[in-house]
């Protein structure tokens, strides 16, 4: 795994940090730990626990649904956009396959995006600038002015 933290984000580069993860189950708790560690210096006012939960769900989905003939990685990046926090998760899957499900009470899977939808102020999916898919969520008022 690789990681990066941008100690002094600017208007030209609002990224606070990034990490690349292998598409294996061990990367899910690693993503939670590293995000928690690297967001701490920025002292966000939002719930880091909520962000960690949403990252966990999106990284899980990226690992489960990412597809490529070549070796690939999951990329997680987080940005400050005004007073909001934006977290992106990239994988080589197909953007059209991202959908919000409404699982039955007995279904064992399918609640990840439902959790993100209920916690985040907004979320979106589409083509990634790295190729494949990006799913991101926004948390408003992460740094109130």
TrEMBL record:
<keyword id="KW-0723">Serine/threonine-protein kinase</keyword>
<dbReference type="GO" id="GO:0004674">
    <property type="term" value="F:protein serine/threonine kinase activity"/>
</dbReference>
<dbReference type="Pfam" id="PF13581">
    <property type="entry name" value="HATPase_c_2"/>
</dbReference>
<dbReference type="InterPro" id="IPR003594">
    <property type="entry name" value="HATPase_dom"/>
</dbReference>
<feature type="domain" description="Histidine kinase/HSP90-like ATPase">
    <location>
        <begin position="26"/>
        <end position="127"/>
    </location>
</feature>
<dbReference type="InterPro" id="IPR036890">
    <property type="entry name" value="HATPase_C_sf"/>
</dbReference>
<keyword id="KW-0808">Transferase</keyword>
<dbReference type="InterPro" id="IPR050267">
    <property type="entry name" value="Anti-sigma-factor_SerPK"/>
</dbReference>
<protein>
    <recommendedName>
        <fullName>Histidine kinase/HSP90-like ATPase domain-containing protein</fullName>
    </recommendedName>
</protein>
<keyword id="KW-0418">Kinase</keyword>
